[in-house]
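<goal> How does this chain fold?
<body> The protein record starts here
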Amino acid sequence: MPVNIYDTTLRDGVQREGISFSVNDKLKIAEKLDELGVTYIEGGWPGSNPKTLEFFRRAGKELQLKNARLAAFGSTRRPGGRADEDRNIRYLVGAATPVVTIFGKSWDFHVRSALSTTLEENLEMIRDTISYLKSLGREVIYDAEHFFDGYKNNPDYALRTIETAAQSGADVAVLCDTNGGLMPWDLADIIAAVRRVTDLPLGIHTHDDCGMAVANTMIALQSGVTHIQGTINGYGERCGNANLCTLIPNLQLKMGLDLLSAKQLAEITGLSRFVAELANMVPQENQPYVGRNAFSHKGGVHVDAVSKSPDTYEHIDPALVGNSRRILISELAGRTSVSLKAREGNIVLLRDHPKTKKVLQRLKKLEHQGYQFEGAEGSFELLILKTMDAYQPFFHLEGFRLIVEKRESGQLYAEATIKVRVGEKQVHTAAEGNGPVNALDNALRKALEEIYPQLKKIKLIDYKVRVLDGKDGTGSRVRVLIESRDGHKTWGTVGVSHNIIEASWQALVDSLEYGLLCRSSRLDEARKLLRLKQADYDLEG
């Protein structure tokens, strides 16, 4: 029987602290999820807020789903009422989705304490709600909330809720580990008990409060479950939900299930980063399969082995999930690491060239001073070109001055005056900013943009300061990492100094110079010069 993937990023995912998608965001994500090939996209609870109502209204007109079916989410009717008169049920029906997902109580403790009703009335609420929605021709997915906790506390009653859902016409009964406390060794026996009372297709919905969400979902599939629920990047309340970006590759590449086409599976890394961007969340770099670190190699022995055979330190080909191998440069690096890392920037650096050893020595010296090039590929490539005498700077600093003033109003005022030389031309200018680094950035750009209009495309998107050793207090050495983007690519640069302005200046200059280098013919010229220098070495050898 095929396995159905049910994505609840747009509902359960937004319950993570700090995430709030606009309606446009939700529509874009739904389109991407459909392209990925999920079976269901849960759009939210239409009775909870106007934004979700607008999403369903626009989704019906604007979304042309090819693979997925859209689901609206809500609860069973209220105690003592009727499903056809219940306000929330009317909103669900009004969403006009082909699928409706209803959650109901499976734990007798919740029935009594949260709903303040009887166990029999709760069963009637499940029965009435599902029967009514089925009478309208909807596919109904029943989420048995807190099922595993309910089963452990009162197994007979928890099973009766599933039987009631099945008898009322539910298409799937989803067993929910709502509190995320389920252990894998309990799962198979509980699913077997459910199987003894119903042959209704079963689903699984897990939370990650014990770090078991993906593992529990995989064990549930081995136990016969055919419907899996989760979110992109594992976003969700508290510790999150089962991470579909880990779960889907696991199921397809490790368990051999045919869930997505090879082309769709290769889109999952891009989808992970797309959703993180819209959520305004920093991507989880150590995330399996789709994280930037998932196929990163730092130790010299590892890098040397991977260069000969990737299988030595990689469990799959990263291209299968749309990711790529990264070689990290640090004090652990060897000449192979430096050569392979350079190749990522299309810079050919011969492993046995004398200056490759010089690059490595320079690198390790800088690392000892506190530089870190793992997230600063821009500074690393400039370091190679400078060490190999294959780089001509775009400008030379003749000096700058910063003034920071706190005025009576309490507002800080910063002004930078800068003097730079480009060829024979000297430029002397000044600019203000909301802080000294911003003022310096503004002044430098003001001085150079007339000569290098490409700078207008280069934007600083992240700025981080790290104190390297706090024993010297405010006189400690700091490392500044800057991330920049020009619409085509993103790169990082680094600076280190006891003076935060100097460290910022180093990272800022590298950022702008690397951006200009990538947007000009000078990069190709530098690469050509580098090849020629190394060709001479080969001939001499």
Observations:
- Residues 354-390+457-541 form a domain with the Double Stranded RNA Binding Domain fold (CATH 3.30.160.340).
- Residues 500-518 form the longest helix (19 residues).
